[in-house]
Amino acid sequence: MCKNIIILFLLGMLSFPTHAIGASSEKHPNIIYIYAHDMGKGLLSAYGQKHFTTPHIDALIHNGVSFDYAFGGSTSAYARASLFTGYHDLNKKKWRITKGGAYIREDTMHLRESESFVNSSSILLPENDLYLPQVFGKAGYVTAQIGLLGFGKTSSREQMARYGWDYYYGYLDHTRGEGYYPTFLFENGQAVMIEGNTRIDCGRGYPYETESEAVYKERWNMEGKKVYAPDLFINKAREFMREFKDKPFFLMYSTQLPAPISVPTAIDPETAQNEQLTPIEKEYASMVKILDNQVGMIMSELRDLGLEENTMIVFASDNGHHIYYLQKDRIVSPFRNMKTDEWFDGSYSKYYSDVAGDVFDGNRGLAGLKESNLNGGINIPLIFYWKGKLKNHISREVVSNYDFLPTVVDLLNVETETEKDGISLLPVLMKGRKLPKNRMVVVSSSEGPALIVNEGWKLRYYNKQTKYELYDIRKDPEEKYDVILRFPQKAEELKKILLEKCGGNIENGIIH
Fold it and tell me: Beta strand pairing status for 450-453 and 457-462?
């Protein structure tokens, strides 16, 4: 390994910023954004999960503001870029997604070479256009991101500084981030070696392979897998909260959990005795339980520090559900109807949990999975909790992940020079107000772009059959009934808008 790298073992000294920041106030609450990875709404017991419980996340739902029609990206990379910039992912001029795998090397000697490529292939916002952490910085906050860092599939240390993070710790490569036992992580400009982790692939294993005896053995082969990344991340987060308990802070907790599957020691006791689940399904359920327990740890830390009433918690996922527990005769890929043995074509025959064999119904009965522009691929859990400030209610307004940055601008009364694609959700959160019926959300996908209107219309382009589909998701959230022939005028109206969002070329809305 490179000798000039600072080596910090396990939970070494934190390199937190020391610059002076103004005192916290009720007008400027701390904000913690807990960002789950590939997590569909159906995995939460508050939303109907029957095989295990998620009491800590459920408590946020039962005591906060939750959104039925919240939309993220169709993939993690695009969702995160959209969240951090405040621009939808059809806005190609604002940012570019870099490829993953830049830091998959046997050591850290080639980091600068890899980062040079990342920097040369990215697009940065102009200096007067703010990234999310820069908005908080203008309001006097200390900012931190822990877990899957940056956005896109690979970021550099130069980019992390440019985005405005005061402190960061975690993976800069989301390909490495699919492994839970990293040989090194990045902490404020330094590559930090993790003693006992020796797997080049960070113990990534075979997350997309069908379960077999060989795959099972490799997943549980703990050679070179000593330190579990989620344990490092939650401890860093708690230490950050303690360090800045007297100052306003924004903590972006971008966890890997709950996917892919990598259980550190044992199956969660709640799922271990569930005879309806196979071993790999029990492991996946345990991953969700680990995430829920970490939410509980964060809430407990806030209470211990006396910060709960002055901290807004946001819980969300980057995109819709994805399957990491493939198993012969259970659920297989390419996905097909396990009752008729027919492949899903994504239009006339769509993926649904009950016929595909997903025992968890991760997408909560919706059509499609991650990477699709169907609701199951882009509808996400989104919950805001702020004790004593937000009244519990369920909002049915159509909102997006790129609304968060404008919401923060509004909440903190920050002056900005540029207009973002998102809008402030503060009136919805604080007063339960409704958004305009013509408010629209757009998203790209490997299948093509989609446009969702607050009154309920959804126009979907499906590139595999080069056609448009129209749904009324207020009446038909499962997207079972294409009504484009019944409402041709509405379809034409929305086609023009979607084409404009794509810069005049519908192909710009396709993720390749």
Answer: antiparallel
